[in-house]
Design brief:
This protein is α+β, with helices and mostly antiparallel strands and 49 residues long. The chain contains 1 helix and 2 strands; from the N terminus they run βαβ. It has one domain. It has a two-stranded parallel sheet with strand order 1-2.
Length: 49
Amino acid sequence: DTYVNVMGQYRPAHLADEYPELNRPLSGSEYREALKIARDEGLLRAASR
């Protein structure tokens, strides 16, 4: 069995400012979407933090 942690703690660093799509924190809706995708793909033991 494998656990998958979907964490909403992303913070841009290093060269992220060169990529506008990465140069921002994760939104709450993006985090919830990632959790839904994990569950929909069968990662039933997905842990969220």
